[in-house]
Amino acid sequence: MAKKDAIFNYSNNFDTSDYTTGMLADWNANQGKVYTDRFEIMWSGDPTQAPGAEIAGWEAGCMKGIGVCDLALDSSLSPNEQGFQTMSHKLIYDIKRAFNLPNQENLATWKDEYTAAAGEHHLFVYLDKDMASWPMALATPGFSLDGSNVTKCALEIGISGFDDYGVSGQDMQYTVRPTATNVSTYNAHYQTLRDNNTAAADYTSPTQVGSQFSQIGNVLLINYENQWQPTNIGSHTKDQIKLIIAWSSHSYAQIKALIDEAIA
Fold first, then answer.
1. What pLDDT, on a 0 to 100 scale, did the predictor assign at position 79?
2. pLDDT-above-70 percentage for the chain
3. Of 210, 206, 212, 203, which Cα lies nearest the Cα of 176?
4. Contact, 128 vs 194, CB < 8 A?
5. Residue range of the domain that includes 207
6. Which residue from 19, 42, 48, 100 has the least number of CB within 10 angstroms?
């Protein structure tokens, strides 16, 4: 499998520059809606079980989220925003049309009652700069955005805090392994680390299988059904904020085919 089977950079196909300031304002204005996740269950050895004791460096709050459908609406946006009441919703609406993504909303109704289709998730993700590490992750049963169905892929849009990658505050960097897809060996690796009370900063990724690639960009499609990680997260100096549109209903290959046809 090739790099394009695990990650693809669509930054040149959708300009986010008119959206990021407003999206950051949406995040800041809705801090009362923030929830925290025990995201480290990804590396617990058995994500179907309840999380064990927290590990220092991965405490609750290292990763936070806000569902875009939960954002407070602001009817004061100017008419040139086409009736959208947050810039984040405008981004979702516009990028779905530019990329011919599934579940395109009817603006006449959606602008007044924002929802997401079953199997699709819209949310802000915040990563604390003091997070100890982020070893390779993999979509596995027991870890999902809706608590039931495995999240297969996501279109991620960088908003703020990614300056450590040396490009801009919006340009994320990920490392991926397109052929590393075996859930059993993935879980066994992390079960050993958990059983040995390994410190978060010392967690290693599973032994590399096949090729490994890195990609930088502010609009990235990522395959969660192979191993993936934000690059060098343990050395970051800024908190990071991104917005993601994720699917448990569609695979990476299905979403990529839709986008590639739309931009051809």
1. 44
2. 95
3. 212
4. no
5. 3-263
6. 48
* Overall number of domains in the chain: 1
Give the amino acid at 244.
I
Q: What is the pLDDT of residues 192-239, one digit of tens each?
A: 999 999 999 999 999 999 999 999 999 999 999 999 999 999 889 999
The enclosing domain of 104 has a CATH number of: 2.60.120
For residues 11 and 218, the answer to whether their CB atoms sit within 8 Å is yes
Look at the block and give the residue holding tokens 């007044």: 112
- Rounded Cα distance, 155 and 58, in Å: 24
What is the rounded distance in angstroms from the CA atom of residue 207 to the CA atom of residue 224?
A: 18
Task: Please give the torsion angle defined by the CA atoms of residues 207, 213, 218 and 219, in that order, rounded to the nearest 10 degrees.
Answer: -90
Summarised one tens digit per residue, pLDDT across range 75-122 is 555 544 567 878 999 999 999 999 999 999 888 888 777 888 999 999
